[in-house]
Prior knowledge:
The chain has 90 residues and is mainly α. It has two helices and no strands. The two termini are 32 Å apart.
Amino acid sequence: MSGPDGVQSQDSLQARKSRIIVSGAIIGAALGALSSYLYARSAEENGNAEAGAPGSVSTGQALALLLAILGLVRQIAELGKAKKDDKPGK
């Protein structure tokens, strides 16, 4: 869907952006559900199954997880940027 000068129409770009956002939301929801399931299963295996309450998460663990998530989000954002060829031999 290109115009006379080879540029995609605004509607086409908007549709592509919408598909990317919806796909990302579905993947994020699936990863979140899987992570929650694995956390609950691990807590059940390592804790008291009758109590049903997993152990508390320390501040250090939460901070480490937050930093890992931020790093992942940054890497995903970098995927959308154009690659720069720094080496002239390529």
